[in-house]
Specification:
This protein is of the alpha+beta class. It has helices at about 15-30, 85-90, 95-115, and strands at about 1-5, 40-45, 70-75, 120, 130, 135-140, 145.
Length: about 170
């Protein structure tokens, strides 16, 4: 996951500071997680100046053209793509009941684990669910996740992706 905050000088210092704080919070949440239905955190970098990222058509020490101020989170690679891609690819036929139940249970197990750790994802959508080659679902993208507040009224509700938000949040 690459967070590009625009060309150097594009964001104000205050905006950059807020974005970096948000990035640190995402890393702080993600690096503590370990569950079969949550993507594994590998590492993070605040800035890309010293990163050497191999690409398919370059040598292992090559540096790609990444924005210097961008931050990145590195997680395990899941070759199955997103749940959204899988559903679109299989939209012409009805999914087997067993497949639907497996996906639903994987999501439920992952969310149950997060909730047991007092973490609220706040952006559960098909683009944030990744699949491995055996079609195991793993939750990804903790950019808007929060540690659950002691008082539920302290949790802000209007965060996430509009089409996936609960109706009561939209009032």
């Amino acid at each position: 996951k690459l967070l590009d905050w625009g060309e150097d000088g594009f964001a104000t210092e205050a905006e950059t500071a807020a974005l970096r704080t948000s990035f640190k919070q995402e890393v702080a949440v993600w690096h503590k997680l370990s569950h079969p239905n949550v993507t594994k955190f590998v590492g993070a970098s605040m800035g890309t100046t010293d990163l050497k990222i191999p690409t398919n058509n370059s040598n292992a020490g090559a540096r790609t053209n990444l924005p210097a101020r961008a931050c990145c989170v590195v997680v395990e690679y899941l070759a199955g793509g997103t749940l959204k891609q899988y559903l679109i690819k299989n939209s012409r036929r009805k999914l087997a009941y067993k497949v639907v139940v497996q996906l639903a249970l994987d999501l439920a197990r992952g969310l149950s684990y997060l909730h047991s750790r007092k973490i609220v994802h706040r952006d559960v959508k098909t683009e944030n669910m990744l699949l491995d080659t055996q079609r195991n679902l793993k939750i990804a993208d903790f950019g808007v996740a929060r540690v659950e507040a002691q008082n539920p009224k302290d949790m802000t509700g209007a965060t996430g992706t509009l089409g996936y938000m609960a109706p009561e949040v939209l009032d």
